Amino acid sequence: MKLDPSALEGDQLIQDGVGDGEAAAEVPPEEPQINGDQQALLDQVIETLQGAGDKLKLSEDFYAITYVSYMLENQAKYSLTKDAIHQNFTNSLYIFGFQTVLSFLVGLQFFSQDFSFTLGDFPIFITRYVCAILLHLQLLNEIKQSLDMQKYLANHTEQFSSRLAPYLIALMQLFGALFTEVINLCLICGQSSIMDVIINFIALGAISQIDDFYANSLSYCPVKEALENPIVVKNRSRDISFRDRNAKSKAIRLLYRFFRILYASAYFYFMPFITLIFTYLVGGTADQPEA
Asked: Where do the TM regions start and end (predicted)?
């Protein structure tokens, strides 16, 4: 029996192919080489994806500038001295004092002149309500930012050189905005003309922005750059047990929850409707026509 040479060659080719395939399968794949710059970029992308949606964005007002100046990272990055940090805190006290005193003096001037809440006609009521909504929208971010600063401080106490001072900054922004809004609502509900309502709305609205005016007037403030990008939130409240918190963190957390409940249940939705209470329930005196 004769063997076909072509068949032998085909079998040999198949065997060679199988052998080559097995040999190729045994060779491990080469791992991609990543240099230092590529690894740093990859780590940054991973950190960004993990922190997406968990960031603290602060507006560029002076309360926020003082708040971030107490963060250890910013102190090292911008070479902030203790004197500079204390000076920022002192200026924040001045701003809060100016807001409170001016609002109080404006309210005192009107309340001392036989002030009373008046009904007014329908156009005046609409003007009051619209101004109340506009002022509420203007100050809503101030209140929300104050609560966000309290929450971040409670979950990241180790990132601050002080706990009391940043929390006082958050409270200054909270009560400064709240006091201004309450005084404004009282005043506009006691005005008997549309022009007086608008003038008082604009006047006290400007008082609430003193911290913004002062921050914009600063010619040199390196730590202000820290507000250009959001602050990454590394510790979430749901991941931290209340028992594991230190005493200061527990106190800040409890106070934050208290203010948060008031904010979500009453302030956010119902603050502009105080104009109805002041107009129809507390006061309710009709304007007397001039003789």
From this structure: 92-110, 258-282
Q: What are the tokens at 60?
A: 């560029």
Is residue 119 in some structural domain? yes
The residue assigned the tokens 């006082």 is 168
Cβ partners under 8 Å of residue 169, min gap 6: 63, 66, 67, 89, 92, 149
Look at residue 136 and tell me if it is in a domain.
Answer: yes
Per the DSSP assignment, residues forming a β-bridge with 56 are 231
> Could you identify the residue written with the tokens 């609502």?
185
Return contacts of 125-133, CB within 8 angstroms, 24+ apart.
Answer: 125/275, 125/279, 127/194, 127/197, 127/198, 128/188, 128/189, 128/191, 128/197, 128/275, 128/279, 129/272, 129/275, 131/188, 131/197, 131/198, 131/201, 132/185, 132/188, 132/271, 132/272, 132/274, 132/275, 133/272
CA distance 224 to 220: 9
What SS3 state is found at 288? coil
Helical packing angle, 122-155 and 164-188, nearest 10°: 170
Per the CB < 8 A criterion, the answer to whether 124 and 193 are in contact is yes
**Cα–Cα distance measured from residue 263 to residue 259, given in angstroms and rounded to the nearest whole number:** 6
- Count of CA atoms in the C-beta half-sphere (13 A) of 133: 5
Give pLDDT, residue 174.
95
Q: Tell me the residue range of the domain where 126 lies.
A: 55-283
Query: Does the structure show a pLDDT above 50 at 72?
Result: yes
Q: Is residue 248 part of a domain?
A: yes
Query: 134-165: per-residue pLDDT in tens?
Result: 999 989 999 999 999 999 999 999 999 999 99
- Those residues with Cβ within 8 angstroms of residue 142's Cβ, 6 or more apart along the chain or in another chain: 173, 174, 176, 177, 208
pLDDT band at 110 (very low <50, low <70, confident <90, very high): low
Domain count, the chain: 1
Q: H helices within 112-193, ranges in order?
A: 122-155, 164-188
- Residue 226 belongs to a domain: yes
